[in-house]
Amino acid sequence: MDDELRQLGSRLAAGEESAYARLYDLYAARMFAAAFRMLGRRADAEDAVQDVFVSLVRSRTALANIADLAAYLFVCLRRSAGRVAQGRPADAPLEHDPPEQADEGGSGDERAARLRAAVDRLPAEQRDVVALKLDADLTFEQVAAVLGTNPSTAASRYRYALAKLRQMLGGAFTR
């Protein structure tokens, strides 16, 4: 995958349309999931992801020099999510279920809803680490690059987030 991403960066910089399609296929779902966790609204998450892909096209020549394209995408996403969040009303209601991730019933519904609500109550820095680690499937090194910190700090925030989630959920959260 690393070789493919390096080649993809060069192809993106050259403006190859198929490279953008491949990048979208590889990362759009994870980007949406992370943006949704950060922003709490489907429309906002979609806007943030779209903003990233538009900006990639506009600044494509810089993409050939990116060492870690996955981390770069999520740095861009985090910045975009921040801009989207600043532009919405403070009292905008949050959603708890992106439609494609909602359960169809059963006992998993209640547990998933409790987990989502608990994640929403985490401090932003911990919620972002959870989004980047679980939703985006990034390594701690990549999470650290996105957050502008070091891998140890990213891992610590993740551990603190999991501990808070366990406490909020009465030990029911085991991942």
Which helices and strands, and how do they pair?
Layout lengths: L1 H12 L3 H23 L2 H17 L10 H19 L19 H15 L2 H12 L4 H8 L3 H18 L7
Helix pairs in contact: 1-2, 2-3, 2-4, 2-6, 3-4, 4-7, 6-8, 7-8
Reading off the top of the CATH hierarchy, the class of the largest domain is best stated as: Mainly Alpha
Range of helix content: over 70%
Principal-axes shape call:
globular
- The ordered H/E elements are HHHHHHHH
Structural class: mainly alpha
| DSSP E strands, number | 0
- Measure the end-to-end span: 26 Å
For this structure, the CATH topology of the largest domain is Rna Polymerase Sigma Factor, Chain: A
Provide mean pLDDT, rounded. 86
CATH architecture designation of the largest domain: Orthogonal Bundle
The percent range for strand residues is under 5%
Point out poorly predicted stretches: 99-106
Description:
- The protein is mainly α and 175 residues long.
- It has helices at residues 2-13, 17-39, 42-58, 69-87, 107-121, 124-135, 140-147, 151-168.
- The protein is globular, with a radius of gyration of 17 Å.
- It starts with a helix and ends in a 7-residue tail after the last helix.
- Mean pLDDT is 86; it is low at 99-106.
Question: Main attributes?
Answer:
0% strand, single chain, mainly alpha, Rna Polymerase Sigma Factor, Chain: A, 8 helices, Arc Repressor Mutant, subunit A, 175 residues
